[in-house]
Amino acid sequence: MSSGRFKQDLYGQLARVARAIGHPNRLELLEYIAQGSRPVDELAAMTRLSVANASKHLQDLRQAGLVRARKEGVRVYYELAGPDVVDLLSAVRIVGETRLAEVEQLVRTYIDARDDLEPVPVDEVLRRARQGLVTVLDVRPPEEYAAGHLPGAVNIAADSLAGHLKSLPRGREVVAYCRGPYCLLSVDAVAFLRERGYKARRLENGFPEWKAAGLPVET
Amino acid sequence: MSSGRFKQDLYGQLARVARAIGHPNRLELLEYIAQGSRPVDELAAMTRLSVANASKHLQDLRQAGLVRARKEGVRVYYELAGPDVVDLLSAVRIVGETRLAEVEQLVRTYIDARDDLEPVPVDEVLRRARQGLVTVLDVRPPEEYAAGHLPGAVNIAADSLAGHLKSLPRGREVVAYCRGPYCLLSVDAVAFLRERGYKARRLENGFPEWKAAGLPVET
DNA sequence: CAACCAATCAACGAATCAGTTGAATATTAG
DNA sequence: CTAATATTCAACTGATTCGTTGATTGGTTG
Question: ipTM strictly over 0.85?
Answer without folding.
Answer: yes
